[in-house]
Amino acid sequence: MADIIDGKKSAAVVTDAVSEAAGRLHREAGLQPGLAVVIVGNDPASHAYVGAKSRMAKKCGFNSMQYTLPEETTQDELEQLVEKLNADPSVHGILVQLPLPGHLQSEPVIQSIRPEKDVDGLHIVNAGKLATGDLASGLISCTPAGAMLLLRDRLGADLSGLNAVVIGRSNLFGKPMGQLLLAANATVTMAHSRTKDLPAVCRGADILVAAVGRAQMVRKDWVKPGATVIDVGINRIAALEKGEGGTRLVGDVAFDECAAVASAITPVPGGVGPMTIAMLMANTVIAAYRSVGRPIPKF
Ligand SMILES: Nc1nc2c(c(=O)[nH]1)N[C@@H](CN(C=O)c1ccc(C(=O)N[C@@H](CCC(=O)O)C(=O)O)cc1)CN2
């Protein structure tokens, strides 16, 4: 049976360090990190994530600002709000919760955020720095940064000689995850829906990272014995086995059967998810330190 990688515990270590760093910045420079989170529309899951981000920001000692915009918000109105936040010196981090309602285009909104306030790490300047191997001067997308921290705790910082397979090629996760693994010297394969014989590709992975958005798609015969499995999926399925109505949360990996083969595995919930919010806090405190030219804390 694989070791279960405890994302909640690692996230608490990060947020404790963030709180400490925020307190120091306040004491020594009189500056309180400010995080503005923008949500448009009524998606319940997005509201839950944004609520969790705002609560954690307060817990870390930040000035936590939440902008809840109605479903019918226009592209112009949203971009004007971003401009206002760009110009506000008390705001060090801006995050626009995704996905946006269908009539809005996310890319122009993301690109309108000043790169130094882009705590989601999605602006082309931040994505470009990561792609060119500069992990020091930009901001890195939160979920991949969190997944890498879990891997670092488990396998160390140098992944030389290890084969990593990332399933999924999104800008939010798959692409930056691939870049981070490459920067850690892993041999990286980016797999996706058009990959031929996906199970065989995955079976070659010492590190298997699943971000496909399909409940329990990765089965035990996809997993190399002894592999480390990182599950980024968040899917709600009917809770049939409990004999009651309702839903339960599962990842992209069939947990029980894959845990029997892997050497370590992240659960859902309680794996990568909590790290996403912790790394958002880390990015915000980093942005605040940089805004006054202070050396940034390490997480
Ligand atoms: N602008 C962004 N939008 C979205 C991002 C993002 O990083 N930036 N990621 C996801 C959603 N997300 C954060 O926004 C997120 C997802 C899951 C969790 C989490 O802690 N999950 C828990 C379970 C929570 C539950 O019970 O539902 C877990 O896995 O343990 C945090 C953040 C899409 N949008």
From TrEMBL:
**Domain Tetrahydrofolate dehydrogenase/cyclohydrolase NAD(P)-binding intervals:** 141-290
Protein residues bound to NADP(+): 168-170, 234
Q: What CDD domains does the annotation carry? A: NAD_bind_m-THF_DH_Cyclohyd (cd01080)
Catalyzed reactions: (6R)-5,10-methenyltetrahydrofolate + H2O = (6R)-10-formyltetrahydrofolate + H(+); (6R)-5,10-methylene-5,6,7,8-tetrahydrofolate + NADP(+) = (6R)-5,10-methenyltetrahydrofolate + NADPH
The UniProt record lists the Tetrahydrofolate dehydrogenase/cyclohydrolase catalytic domain at 5-120
Pathway(s): One-carbon metabolism; tetrahydrofolate interconversion
Q: What is its EC number?
A: 1.5.1.5, 3.5.4.9
Quote the PROSITE patterns the UniProt record gives.
Answer: THF_DHG_CYH_2 (PS00767)
Q: Which domain of life is it from?
A: Bacteria
UniProt KW keywords: Amino-acid biosynthesis, Histidine biosynthesis, Hydrolase, Methionine biosynthesis, Multifunctional enzyme, NADP, One-carbon metabolism, Oxidoreductase, Purine biosynthesis
State the function annotated in the UniProt record: Catalyzes the oxidation of 5,10-methylenetetrahydrofolate to 5,10-methenyltetrahydrofolate and then the hydrolysis of 5,10-methenyltetrahydrofolate to 10-formyltetrahydrofolate.
- What HAMAP family does the annotation carry? THF_DHG_CYH
The family classification in the record reads: Belongs to the tetrahydrofolate dehydrogenase/cyclohydrolase family.
Q: How is the subunit organization of this protein annotated in UniProt? A: Homodimer.
Q: Which NCBIfam families match?
A: PRK14186.1, PRK14188.1
> This chain belongs to which protein, by name?
Bifunctional protein FolD
- Which organism was this protein described from? Rhizobium lemnae
Per UniProt, what is the name of the gene that codes for the protein in this document?
folD
